[in-house]
Design a protein that fits this description.
This is HTH tetR-type domain-containing protein. InterPro entries: Homeodomain-like_sf, HTH-type_TetR-like_transc_reg, HTH_TetR. By secondary structure, the protein is mainly α. 77% of the residues lie in helices and 0% in strands. It folds into 2 domains: 41 residues, Orthogonal Bundle (Arc Repressor Mutant, subunit A), CATH 1.10.10; 134 residues, Tetracycline Repressor, domain 2 (Orthogonal Bundle), CATH 1.10.357. It contains 9 helices and no strands. The model has no long low-confidence stretch (mean pLDDT 93).
Length: 184
């Protein structure tokens, strides 16, 4: 089943949800299409399973980060956060395609963003315990946007130059140090 889901995720990331067929998923996984139907009655069931798995990956990443944020300096936390989307991308690369295919995509996207902001702000507040919750969410929103830009640069979907990712890392470090140090 894991191989079928991985094949589905890869195909949906490459081709999009609508262009991916059950037969292609089975072929990519090296399975017979009947095996795929034994686990999933249709493509929508696969998409729902993938969406739940990938949202859980994101949740787990933020929980783990918050669990260790008390041992991190603001600049260390900044580096981890700025690269978090890039490092987890292979595990959630079909998430945009999965969201786009749903009739409730706006709601799912809003839940995903809220989860990210909550996860980042939790890590910020562990790193800087006196940080106000509202301020933490504002900072988290800025950091989340920086994380998206870093992913875009890495995937060559955003304007970039060879040194731009390092400059974004520096900017993120300076920003988090300036914002978190007074609350530590």
């Amino acid at each position: 089943m894991a191989e079928l889901l991985q094949a589905a995720s890869d195909l949906m990331a490459e081709r999009g949800y609508d262009a991916t067929t059950m037969a292609e998923i089975a072929a990519r996984a090296g399975a017979k299409v009947g095996s795929l139907y034994r686990f999933f009655p249709n493509k929508e069931a696969i998409a729902e399973t993938l969406l739940q798995q990938q949202m859980a990956v994101l949740h787990d990443e933020y929980e783990a980060l918050a669990g260790r944020a008390s041992t991190l300096l603001p600049e260390e936390l900044a580096d981890i956060l700025i690269d978090l989307m890039v490092t987890r991308y292979p595990r959630v690369k079909s998430l945009p395609a999965l969201m786009q295919a749903r009739t409730d995509s706006v709601e799912i996207r809003n839940v995903s963003r809220a989860q990210a902001i909550q996860g980042i702000s939790a890590a910020l507040r562990v790193c800087a315990p006196a940080l106000d919750e509202v301020v933490a969410k504002d900072i988290a929103a800025v950091v989340l946007n920086n994380m998206k830009v870093m992913l875009g640069m890495t995937l060559k979907e955003a304007p970039t130059t060879p040194g731009a990712p390092d400059e974004l890392r520096r900017m993120n470090r300076l920003y988090l140090c300036a914002r978190l140090d007074p609350w530590r």
